[in-house]
């Protein structure tokens, strides 16, 4: 005889507040849970792992307000071949993963057509314009404003040719609310004393920023969520229904609203509703030292653009991050990617030694490089927010505010229609 299924646990509070379950405890899920909580919702956050290592906490920590142009663009298509890993670039298309990345790449090419790109550009720029104010509100609500360092970032080039080309590209680009200026000769000389490779030119952005310490951000956000009455459950979600979530251990949870923020796992959870989410794991790699490192704590993130690598000083150490690898999320890491990072680190003379800890994580990426934010049609209480690619950290607080406004029936700061999954048919 089959044992009866347990009844769903109702996670509404004793005061019968509106209840919500947020699936996925990355930075988007956590900020969404907190945004709902601030609106008076009783929130349960379901996280697959006790100590998550998602892309949320392994990225460069950069608040990239300058990236107002989606990566799926005509310019990207024109420069595609030069970016390939085997040619020295950061774009890796592993032959063994062709069944994963080829269909995605074809969709990306369609998304990069001029008319569709223009629509995506307009939507992303509007969303990014709200990113830094949302971050300022978020860290203030956490009681930790020092977690946000809104002091810009630096881009460096190592040859006169790449400096001229890179400066021209940025001058022609839409940098959203961020602005930049050429580095002064004194600033260039300072960077020349810090790295071994010659520095031919550079620019300093204003209006972008970084997170001072990703680990403290995660711990502070979780502590605030729990202190304000949130419930955190560690478990893997097997299925989502209208107002109900089933975990792989047969536990069932119920709430007025379910929000899917599970990164690359979101597509499978939404498929039973008839929604197509052609997502891929865009895997990034990093190496990081410990906290005792000879690199000033007040230096901003620095992009070595010739190497497609960003270096960020955190409270916990110095991190070098790079690589765009299209593959399955569960595929084994490729040591060649860390070796490439080590080669760049050695060429630049950065203080990241053999004891640096390697990391690999999967950015959840959709072909048009826009996030997915919206409601599931035909349901009363299922919505989603995922697929933020390189901008998950940047857009997390504004995404949480958008979801909270959407569920409250309030006007959104920016239209969410361009981010609905119906765009994929």
Helix content estimate: 25-40%
Return the structural class.
alpha/beta
Number of helices: 12
User: What is the rounded distance between the termini?
Assistant: 42 Å
Mean pLDDT: 93
Low-confidence stretches: 1-7, 11-15
- How much beta, percentage-wise? 15-25%
Oligomeric state, counting identical vs distinct chains: single chain
**β-strand number:** 22
Radius of gyration: 21 Å
Envelope shape: globular
**Largest sheet: number of strands, sense, barrel closure:** 9 strands, mixed
Task: Explain what the structure shows.
Helix 1 runs parallel beside helix 9 and helix 1 (about 25-40) packs parallel to helix 12 (about 390-410). The longest helix has 17 residues, at about 390-410. About 30% of the residues lie in helices and about 25% in strands. The strands form four sheets. Strands 5, 7, 8, 9, 16, 17, 18, 19 and 20 form a nine-stranded mixed β-sheet that branches. The protein has a six-stranded mixed β-sheet with strand order 11-3-2-15-22-21. The chain contains twelve helices and 22 strands. With about 425 residues, it is of the alpha/beta class.
Question: Could you give a short description of this structure?
Answer:
This protein is 32% helix and 24% strand. The chain contains 12 helices and 22 strands. The model is unreliable at 1-7 and 11-15 (pLDDT under 50).
Looking at this protein, list some descriptive labels.
12 helices; 425 residues; six-stranded mixed beta sheet; 22 strands; alpha/beta; nine-stranded mixed beta sheet; single chain
């Amino acid at each position: 005889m089959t044992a009866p299924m347990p009844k769903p646990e109702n996670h509404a509070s004793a005061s019968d507040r509106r209840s919500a379950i947020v699936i996925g405890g990355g930075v988007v899920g956590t900020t969404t849970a907190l945004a709902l909580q601030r609106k008076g919702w009783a929130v349960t956050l379901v996280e697959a792992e006790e100590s998550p290592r998602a892309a949320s906490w392994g990225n460069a920590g950069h608040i990239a307000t300058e990236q107002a142009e989606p990566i799926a663009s005509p310019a990207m298509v024109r420069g595609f071949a030069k970016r390939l890993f085997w040619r020295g670039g950061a774009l890796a298309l592993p032959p063994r993963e062709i069944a994963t990345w080829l269909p995605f790449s074809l969709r990306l090419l369609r998304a990069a057509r001029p008319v569709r790109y223009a629509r995506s550009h307009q939507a992303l720029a509007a969303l990014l314009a709200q990113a830094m104010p949302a971050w300022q509100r978020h860290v203030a609500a956490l009681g930790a404003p020092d977690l946000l360092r809104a002091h810009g970032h630096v881009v460096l080039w190592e040859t006169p040719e790449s400096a001229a080309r890179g400066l021209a590209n940025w001058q022609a680009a839409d940098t959203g609310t961020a602005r930049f200026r050429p580095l002064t000769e004194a600033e260039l000389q300072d960077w020349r004393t810090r790295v071994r490779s010659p520095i031919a030119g550079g620019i300093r952005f204003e209006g972008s920023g970084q997170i001072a310490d990703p680990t403290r951000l995660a711990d502070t956000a979780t502590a605030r969520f729990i202190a304000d009455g949130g419930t955190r459950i560690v478990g893997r979600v097997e299925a989502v229904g209208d107002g109900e979530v089933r975990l792989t251990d047969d536990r069932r949870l119920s709430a007025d609203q379910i929000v899917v923020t599970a990164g690359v796992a979101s597509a499978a959870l939404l498929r039973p509703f008839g929604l197509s989410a052609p997502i891929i794991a865009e895997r990034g790699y990093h190496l990081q030292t410990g906290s005792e490192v000879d690199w000033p704590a007040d230096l901003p993130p620095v992009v070595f653009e010739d190497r497609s690598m960003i270096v960020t000083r955190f409270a916990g150490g110095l991190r070098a991050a790079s690589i765009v690898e299209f593959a399955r999320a569960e595929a084994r890491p490729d040591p060649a990617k860390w070796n490439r990072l080590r080669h760049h680190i050695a060429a630049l003379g950065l203080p990241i030694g053999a004891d640096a800890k390697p990391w690999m994580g999967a950015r959840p990426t959709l072909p048009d490089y826009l996030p997915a934010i919206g409601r599931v049609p035909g349901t009363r209480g299922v919505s989603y927010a995922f697929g933020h690619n390189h901008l998950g950290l940047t857009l997390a607080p504004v995404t949480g505010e958008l979801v909270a406004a959407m569920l409250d029936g309030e006007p959104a700061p920016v239209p969410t229609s361009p981010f609905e999954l119906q765009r994929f048919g």
